[in-house]
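Entries read chain and fold; for instance:
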Amino acid sequence: MEGGSVPAILCIGGLDPSGRAGILADAEAVREAGGRALCVAAAITVQTSRGVRGFTALSPRLVAAQVEALVADERPAAVKLGMLGTPAVAASLARILGGLPLPIVVDPVLAASGGEPLFSGPPSGYAPLLALSPVLTPNLLEARALSGAGSAAGPVLLARRLLSRGASAVIVKGGHLSGPTSPDWVLDATGARCLPGRRLAARARGTGCRFASSLATRLAAGESLLAAARFAKIAVRRYLVQGGRSEHTPPCRCGGGKPPPSGGAGSDAAAAGP
């Protein structure tokens, strides 16, 4: 980010009409992290605040056309990918984004928090995107599915397997861990670091979207991986403490935002407090 300008973040994912998840949630999170969202729909979902009823993936050609048009008009400072719907869309985006030397964050959405499938293919359908050396932000269940590891594998082992498959960094979110704490694990070539947090009873949809979008925005602003991950964890905690509602409405109005106050946080399925 040069001269204090607001970074544009290209957010590619599903459209959730309720605004609780998907690219509308991305836009909220990007704004609150100090960026401006450029949103591309990869799938249209049938959702309410209570859950998912179904989805239709858009054609790879239509998704690609949206991305190419936006990139030709304005160079984004980072890319965040979420729900893609099909392996064909993932492969198409890998080809397009491969020529853009900028931070790429992949939130590998396979299913909704209620368990409803949101990807019509095997987890390996996300593999072409790993060739882009992205920052990968799976929850524990997604990390197990993508790595092929069993249920006994812990976050650090899962992250190491995903690093070996091409990711430049992996953040395994701890919301699905049992117990009173909800740590996130951050791994890259320099080693493994834990972001601790105390679990909260609060629950909300879209926490994974918000975490990855906040992370991408802070990486675009020049922050280190660890600092950006801490920011994203705090942002998600604040969202959950507020009952799953953003401070900014409507969610699709993007612009500069103020960072959340410091403190511990958690993400994905359940929150963690300081």
In short: The chain has one domain: 8-273. The chain has eight helices and eleven strands.
